Amino acid sequence: MNIANRLTIFRLFMIPLLVLSMMYTNNESLLPALIFIIAAITDFFDGYLARSRNLVTTFGKFADPLADKMLVATAFIMLIPKVAPWMVVLVIMREFTISGLRILAASNGVTIAASYWGKFKTVSQFIAIVLLLLNNTIMVPLSIPLDKIFLYLSMILTVISLVDYFIKNIHVLDFENM
């Protein structure tokens, strides 16, 4: 097993630690944010290492996006007291929809690559989650609600990336054989 896949598996193991840290620490604890940041950083490095060292594997193509979706969905679900439930539903619905589109495409021998909109969406979600976990404490002196700004930005990018995937891959749906 190569280093990129090990980082992906490590990220998957961080998810239960994130849940436990959010359940059993108070709102002042930095532990959940630290766990999430470490897990999010592995997302960058596993992709970078896989591409730069030609370590791309079938397992990595499957597990990396799955780990990302599980990490983000878990964090948003655990943050429901701070995040409106409709936002969590939007994020999860988008992920199921894109995954379904990718499965359909793969069954026809088509690979749907990650888009820049999807990458922007992921980064904005990571930032929003970290700021929410930190209770926006890094901006308290300025009274700027960066957590809410990034949360709403991530929702906008969630919708934009969903629409982008469908526009670019509408041919996969094969409306003629419905």
In words, what does this structure look like?
With 178 residues, the chain is mainly α. It contains 6 helices and no strands.
Structure keywords:
178 residues, mainly alpha, 73% helix
Large-scale geometry = globular
Q: Show unreliable segments.
A: none
Quick one: how many beta strands? 0
Helix content: over 70%
What is the ordering of alpha helices and beta strands?
Answer: HHHHHH
Radius of gyration from the CA trace?
A: 17 Å
Largest sheet, strands/sense/barrel? none
| Number of continuous helical runs | 6
Helix and strand content put the structural class at mainly alpha
Q: Could you tell me the mean pLDDT?
A: 90
Instruction: Please report which band the strand proportion falls in: under 5%, 5-15%, 15-25%, 25-35%, 35-45% or over 45%.
Output: under 5%
Through-space gap between termini: 41 Å
Task: Give a brief description.
The chain contains 6 helices and no strands. It is an all-alpha fold and 178 residues long.
List the helices and strands and how they pair.
Blueprint (H helix, E strand, L loop, with lengths): L2 H22 L6 H22 L5 H21 L6 H23 L8 H18 L12 H24 L9
